[in-house]
Specification:
The complex is a heterodimer. In chain A, 81% of the residues lie in helices and 0% in strands. Chain A is mainly α. In chain B, the strands form 2 sheets. Chain B has a 6-stranded mixed sheet with strand order 6-7-8-3-9-10, with helices on both faces. Chain B has a 4-stranded antiparallel sheet with strand order 2-1-4-5, covered by helices on one side. The chains are: A mainly alpha, B alpha/beta.
Chain lengths: 256, 273
Amino acid sequence: MLAGYLGAAALWYACVAWVPLESFRRLPDPVAVVTEWLSPQPTYGISIFTEAYYKHILYSTWRASAAFAAATLLGVPLGVCIGWSRSFSGFASALLGMLRPVPPLAWVPLAILIFAGSEAAVIFVTFLVAFFATTLNTAVGVKSIDPDFFRAAACLGASRMDILLDVVLPGALPNIFTGLQIAMGAAWFSLAAGEMIAAQYGLGFLIMEAYNLIQFPTIVIAMATLGLLGYLSSALIRVLGNRLMRWREQSLGFAA
Amino acid sequence: MSGALSIRGVGKTYDPEGASVEALRDCSFEVRAEEFVAIVGPSGCGKSTLLNAIAGFDTVTAGQITLDGRLLAQPGLAPKPGPDRVVVFQHGALFPWKTVLENVTYGPLRQKALSREAARAKALELLRASGGLDSTAASYPAQLSSGMQRRVEIVRALMNDPPLLLLDEPFRAMDGFSKATMHQHLLDLHRRYRKTIVFITHDLDEAIYLADTVVVMTTRPGTVKEIIRVGLGRPRVPQMLYSRDYAELKRSAAQSVHEEARRAFERGEREQA
């Protein structure tokens, strides 16, 4: 794994040093970026020692978390309804099917007009992609539950509420978490894009600002930070998922 | 004594967009309280349709089913499953996300029939009586062998004290040795807890060895072809499988089962063509 990271850095270095293209030669090599990143007095004003760097991170993280939380809170219940009720499924699938193919960024202008401001608009666009992923995966998860579990619960005297809590939610949990993973990835993707178009702070905005000022190392620092945050948030979901689905983890070792 | 099941003239026609399929036609037989009845027949003979109707998973389009005089199914009646006739499923339906103890105590706790402590005590006792399974109370089902899972699922059913147990080919996927062990276990439970058992299978040996009565069903539309009273005494022991009585029963039953199996096979060939 370490070899992979080193290899990637070497490839990057080689591209900058040896590719005979004028535009490649102006790119910063790994050493320049890391030096800038870790410098107490960064040339272009952004490093781990500057307050502004954390402000951008904070803004992006807050927006991603708010959008992700809203997507989970709305998407999981909606997905359960779609997966569980056939009539609801017909209605909602048509609506979702129509809205989903619209590229998230195409929403930005409308969102700014609706929410009268860029902050809520960026969060909305981020929410939207995460919401689709969560809803659809939850619905698939509920639909894929073995019907015998519903029948067994009914035989044992479970009410509809019991079935929701004891069969539907745990049965759909693996798919819900797959959905959350996808949602988190998609959220960072459209967050960065949204921030580039319509924001005053945030890592996407930082990339755009550094681009306008031609500050190469800062662009790469912001990109790498986005990658890191995306990786961490996705790891967080995985850990939470494994904790909630111990029954699955254990079954791998002992499966009969 | 309870658990007398009466099936009178039951029919079921599926009607998916006009192409009606008659799965059951005029199916009638009586099951006495505490009797062990096996229903045998070729695949697609409507055994599972009948079981679904008794369990309350599906409607019937003709006839009546009653349990101790109480109406379970008739045309126009909304089906409703309940803890008075618990099903043990063909592919197993223990909740994988609940531990053995949580699975087994699920019925009494959801019905609020027992307190948590009482349910736990009863569960551990029944699990212990099922080959020392109380030691697996904290495990998840996937950690158990398929034979253990089956025994736990039967315990989960027994926890509700149902007058009637419905077993849908529960040992189908098992190897011969595990199957033989499970047969003795089931016979032992039947002797101890005196439940009426309706056992669905396509294995004639299994049916004769376990049951008091074997109901042979015809191929689709499924109806009762023959009712065989198994005169073998109880307790049943494996030696009986080699007795003259057993051979005689097997010979007469095999004839009608094979007739139906051939008809089902030939129809399958025609439908393929």
